[in-house]
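Final report, closing paragraph on structural work. Over the funding period we assembled a curated collection of sequence-structure pairs, and we close with a single example.
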Amino acid sequence: VAERLRQLITDGTLVPGVWLNERDLCERLRVSRTPLREAYRLLASDGLVMLLPKRGAQVIALSAEDVGNLFDVLAVMEGLAGRQAAERATDAELQQIAQLHRAMLDAYAARDIQRYFEASMGTHVAINAAAHNPVLTETYRRLNMRVQNLRYKSNVALGEWSAATSDHEDFVAALLARDGAKTEALLRQHVLEKRDFAVNEARARETSGD
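Its predicted structure, as stored:
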């Protein structure tokens, strides 16, 4: 149930700041209130929802400053993961990353944003895992979870989507060549470009009062 709620938050069905309606979600997910409330607690621990006594659960709306800070840290973490993956990944892990990248390109060609996002984030997660740094992986998972909806939304704009695809081509190629320094630099730049889009989205939401 928690995973299904995460997906609804990621794709924007449940927008930042919205209060979660238990009755509606129970009907949508076909579950009772007990597992739904347990899912709320799991999402709260991930920083995706806020639980308020007697008021229920609300999807957390990050401020523009929060978004900028999160992406700044993620840029460093993704860059480090790229460099360490270039140094430590097995050949099999690099093959898996190449396969995920090809799947992402196929989805982009088909303009299938859901499939694209799954393959795109799958590539990032696989690179992180190939770094063989458990502390990095756990910290990255928790922080990245908080901005999944913004990373997803950035691909809705065709210009951003095209640029992100081109970025992937570059840093995956550098990784497969085991060029750690280049992979690190390209991944950091890629995430910082995502930051700029995400911060603008957060500012627009703050300005509109949503």
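The CA atoms of residues 107 and 157 lie 15 Å apart. The mean pLDDT is 91. We thank the funder for supporting this effort.
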